Amino acid sequence: MTIADNFTSVMNRIAAAAKRANRDPLSVRLVTVTKTVSIEGIREALASGAEILGENRVQEAKEKIEQLGSSAGWHLIGHLQTNKAKYAVKLFDLIHSVDTLELAAEIDKQAAKIGKLQDVLIEVSIAGEAAKAGVALDDAVNLVKRAALLKNIRIKGLMTMPPYSDDPEKSRPYFKKLKELSAIIDRENIPGVSMAELSMGMSGDFEVAIEEGATLVRVGTAIFGERV
After folding, report:
1. Domain assignment of residue 143, yes or no
2. What are the pLDDT digits (tens) for 72-102?
3. pTM of this prediction?
4. Per the domain annotation, does 228 fall within a domain?
5. CA-to-CA distance for 73 and 31, rounded, in angstroms?
6. Distances 128 to 1, 17, 87 between C-alpha atoms, Å
7. Range of the structural domain that residue 77 is part of
């Protein structure tokens, strides 16, 4: 199977999952995860129809963006260190991984310097795994309220990563909780905050994520194969 074949298969699976949930397939966008993928591989994905590319690391993304330009949207889906925020605001349309007020404030400060309103998602650790990033579920609403006061960031929704499992059904409760949290925040009517986006689901569980309301699914392995 080529990258083009895999890309088409993933898009078909996205559409089928959306239809099962009585959703418009166009309400779900694919973030094609290009971590460790060669420029040639990314070009093949772009030729197949990839519109959003997701990177985990700022430096790797910078090198790729310099070669590929802005022929697609670029999203940062990995953990962002505060000292890399000044680069991230120049490179990415959407940052999925804001999980502290300190990071939100640094992004805001750096975005202000270049006159940008930076779109972000708040990353929530639904499972509370110590090894994973994300604000604790009980602290998420407070973080959104405080980050919303910053002038140069715009909160567009939430992101999560459930514990790893070979069984996609084991991810479902975590996706449900993120959707419930999104509804709770939405009812707060916090000025300047939108809960339009739910970034959840990866190669092993994106169909379940779509059934539970994902608007952004982050898929790499199912398109490019296992990483070397």
Report:
1. yes
2. 999 999 999 999 999 999 999 999 999 999 9
3. 0.97
4. no
5. 9
6. 37, 28, 29
7. 3-223
